[in-house]
Each structure stands twice: as C-alpha cells, then as structure tokens.
Amino acid sequence: MTATRTNADPGLFGPDSVTWQAHADPMMWVAGIRALYLQALHPRAVRGVMQNSDFRRDAWGRLMRTASFVGTTTYGTTEAAERAGARVRKIHRMLGATDPDTGERYGIDEPALLLWVHCAEIGSYLHVLRRSGFPLTDAHADRYLAEHRHSARLVGLDPASVPANRAELDAYFARVRPELAAGADAHEVDDFLRRPPTHPLLVPARELLWRRVARLAYDSLPPYAHELYGRPAPPPATVTRRLRATGALLRLIPARLRRQLPPRHVLRAMARLGPAARPAPYKIGRQAAILDRPGEGAAD
Length: 300
What we know:
about 300 residues; mainly alpha; two-stranded antiparallel ribbon; about 0% strand; globular; oxidoreductase activity; MPAB/Lcp_cat_dom
C-alpha cells in the first residue's frame, strides 16, 4: 500500500499507517463527542476549558477546530502538522485556570492535564471505531496508540510519557480514575451536548439527529462515567449493537461524497500523494496478515 507519488511529503503518519485509514471513518464524529464527555470528568481539565473558552456559545466551533486539527495532523504535510501543533502549544502557554475552592492558579498546559485530554480523545476514537465494526485487530489498535505519540508531542507532551499500547492505556485510566468527578462543569457540558442551542427552525433536526448521536456517544462511555454523571445507559450489548448499526448506516454513504465536506483534508492529501493514498477500511485488512504475525506489529 504505497502512494503513487513517492517524492511527496506523506505527513506525520502517511498512507501506510493505521491512523490514515481509521480517521476517515464517519464514526469519528460519534467518537469525538464521547471524548468530550470523558474529558469533562477531569475537574481540573474541564475547568480550564470552561474558564478560557466560549464553549457555551461556540461548542460547534470547538468541535470543528478539533476536527480540523485532527485532519491536519493526519492528512496534512509535516510542515502543516508542526504549525498546527505550535499554534496549540502557544495558546496553551498563555492560558490558566483557577480552582474556586483553593484559589490555586495553574496552567492548562500541565503535562498531567494534556495527557488526560490526549488519552480521553485517542482512547475514544479507538473505542468507538472498534466497537462500531471498523476492522481493527488488537495489533492494529496497539499500533494506532503508538502512532499517536506523534500527536501527543505536537501538543507539548513527552512521547515517552504517553501510553503506546492497550495495556498501557488501560493502566493509565485505572491510575487516573480516583481523580475523576462529575462536578458542575461536567454537568454543564452534559446539558449542552444533550440540548445545544440552535435556531428554532433546526430544533426538530436537533431532536431527531443530534440527540441520538449524543446519546449514543454517552452510552458508549465506560460504566464508571455513567455512575459519575448519574445517568444510566443500556446494557453494553445493546450499545454495541447500536454502534454497529450506526456505523453500518454511515458507511453506506459513499466515501467520495463524505470527502467533499469541508475542510477536505483527505482530498488534498490525495491530490498531493496520488489516488493510491485514498483511505479505506479494506486497506486495514491488508495489513492484518503482517501486523498479526508473531514478532511483528509491535508498538513503534
């Protein structure tokens, strides 16, 4: 699986990566909402968001900016990815938050906070993709996590401190679990995601489409998150069936149509690298024979 223009810059990941194939899947939108729910359970992290952003009035803009960052770092040139990372690091260096209980002032670029945001995001992408039927083996999953030490570096983390496989990610979540809580900020995020403000004419669409997507993202959270938020979820088997049904439905939309949606990162990557760079789930399957061989497919 190679690009037709070998002299072009493949970017941070390149067409041979798991990330390149996975991030073009439409279930990434459900995964992104799940990541917001999970990230909001870290009181210090969500406080930094609520005190420094216009989340309440521009949550859609925040989602789009995150999607643009992921698209740029996945499919853009190395230079574009590095610029995007430098911009994020610059913004984070200038921002801080205040603990209302202790008066402590802290920077939102604390490594522990950056690591939580990274793991909640990448872990959510991986969880939703696999659970919805995207063809990722255990070896692919480990490789995906290892690849995202690149994106962790871009936001200011030491790659060596970032979980590089499923076992390390599970251990990280177990370690941080006692720090999580659903405070007022988390419930505000929850309320917003369930009922985002919208034009009156779009309220029916919000009720029909958005709330179902947000509910599915919430239901796919780990059980401890449901306990913290105080809202139950259907049995895991039911959630898995719904994720797979949603994934199957969204994947029926031709990729050539989905790629036309702004900001068209995949189309620009294909123009740069050639048509063989087109991401597709079946290309993951081609890697399985290699990645699943004993002694191969380990974390990079």
